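To close the chapter, one final illustration. This time we ask the reader to focus less on the individual chains and more on the assembly as a whole: which components sit near each other, and how the overall shape emerges from the parts.
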Amino acid sequence: MIIVLLQLWWLRQRGVLRQLVRSLKQPVRLIGLLAVLVGFGFVIWAGSNDQIRGAGMTRDSFAILGAMLFTMGVASGFVQEGPRFTSADVDFLFPAPFSPRQLLWWRLLQAWPLTLVSVLLMSIAFGARMARPGRLVIGMALLQFSALHLQLLISVLLTRLSDRAAKRLRGVGRTVTMVVLFGGLLYLVVAVSQAGGLSSLIAPVATSSVARIVLFPAAACVDFVFADSTASMVLALARLLAAAAGTLALLFVPEVDYLEDSVATTARFARLLSARRRGGLLIDDPQGTRTARSLVPRPSVLLFRGPGALVWKNLLVMARSWKTVVPGLLVGLLIVLPTALLTRKGVANGHIALAALIPATIFWSNALAFDLRREFDRLDELRALPFAPTRLVLAELLVPWVFGVVLQEALLLTIVAGRSLGGVRFAAAAAAMPLLMFVAIVIDNLALFLFAPKGAGRGSSGSAGQALRPIAWMAAIAPGVGVWYVLLSNHFDPVIAITAGLVIDVAIAVLLFFLLVRVYESRAATT
Amino acid sequence: MIEVIGFSKSYGSEGGADAVRDLTFTVAPSDILGLVGPNGAGKTTTLRALAGMLKPSAGSLRIGGFDVTREPVAAKRQLALVPDTPNPYEMLTVREHLEFTRLAYGVSAEVDAEALLARFELSAKRDELCGALSRGMRQKLAICCALLHQPKALLLDEPLTGLDPHGTRVMRDVIRDAAIAGTAIVVSSHQLELVERVCTRVLILKKGSKVVEGTLDEVRAAAAAGAQASLEEVFFKLVDGDGPAASASS
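The assembled structure is written out below.
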């Protein structure tokens, strides 16, 4: 039967690979792929450049990274009550003559290659910072396989618990994942910025004897990658292999019929994936019954008449999606806060902190995608509404823009507080924030329309669109920044220089907005 | 061939609402049972439980003599399920999808998949990706996949959804032909006309309980309807009124 599963697997992978190659015939996808490759090339070059790489990744840093990846991998098992499959698996393989154990093999056949790909991507990112990148690939792969096996085992065993207990564990798993993810990201941001501080706090925990036992595959991976003798390397490799093989064997010990729970889990994740494709946001509510209505004003408010109804609807949806909005916003904060906190002295450092707001803008635009990005599958219905396209698009963009700007200005105040930044600089930055956010939101919406594939999988902006968004955003604001810089270099009054730059960027923003309206009008019906 | 004995299914935590309560019926080879009922009556739950995708809270379900819970693999070898909204593997072509099914069920290469495709007018689409198929085409493909291994029990959940008039006619013929070949068939559908024209027996479900089961004449009699009453009239009389909650047949 394993042979049959392997044949099925190959048939499916062949289709995926063929489609991947075919999709590169589309210029935008090819450009997107090239952009991603250039990005990787830069990472590798930066890693191999002694001046940029510095001392490379330390054993402690790698221990934290390994512990983080392992914990997150295992913890995500708690959010799946029954392993997650694809909808096609449920429709075509679940009724087929395969036992739950055989279907677990099928799940592993799908997951192992994906795990390997993620390990390769991580190795590209971190390998150049390591003395032995080959060992990194092997160590990380075995570590991730162990985590995957345990993740599946947990999701299978969860089906034996009562609904209430499983729900509690799901909450615990989600919390652990979030804490580890953000804690780890925060650590990495600080460590990469060479500011130190937190590493001395976290490293002893990650390398403690308790952690080495509880997270033994991660400890074995660190020992393997950093082993300085052949004997210790072989011993660590044996431990890693034992971890991967042992967890695999453990996975097949319990004989549990998890199919019913997997059907529900698969349907839940399919809904989430579909929502994410539309706008990067989702409502993870297995029951689908809870609603949050407290903070959103009543629809009778004057603002919500006409196209304002879209604003009201977007506010409601955002209120009900807070579980996913907050993590997205936190990612943006993670980028800014360490820089802001670690550069509290001097005007130049203040500028660095202000510059950190720029990537946060892009993250927040993505996190607050309650606009046309969520409406992509409903364009025909939108067009049927009795509003002018300009007013409709404006109404759609209002919620993410207002919330994004409020966040930016609040953060700006936090950064500026206690610094020796002049009033003009602060005013300029405060005035520029709404513009920067608006341009980011318009470009994100445009990317969806320009890069989303027609037909199957519509609603996704695809990797090409994702990769090009920040570049397009920078290109859009560059003229204004350039004029400001040139005027300032030629000793113009700072107020004039800033005003001129802003006027140019406002003009570009308006042009982009009308381009979005045009694209929205002309997009062929796909629903 | 298909036996459902005292089947009950509750969702959610202990004491959750019953989706199906104490349902019993059998479908013999060459029989076509029409499973009808309002939304939420438990039709899809029953079919999914028969396909081994849901665990019964009580009772037993057997396909070809094999208990679906205790011997799921043997039971599944005998059956095919066509879900109400099929989700094929989007990156496979139509032909590859049939190949996939052939491998999964161990069907010999001699079985003529091309004839199935031709019957459902899918031959021209054989090299198209499933992701590019319309809803109706996906439905046709799912039916082709279901018929490929010549199942002894065929479960069809809303089989006409998305089908064009030609597809609808072919579907009706296919169901009849499969029955003639000895397949036990359960058709769940809101299209009462299809059930009336194709099915040899009818089972009406309401809120998870059987309202009536029998041949169309028996169901008419149970509803105290005239001999010429359509299934639609009988259905509304039994479902909207206080119809008998018992089998009309032995």
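The radius of gyration of chain B is 18 Å. Residues 1-78+153-165+188-250 of chain B form a domain with the Rossmann fold fold (CATH 3.40.50.300). With these observations in hand, you are ready for the problems at the end of the chapter.
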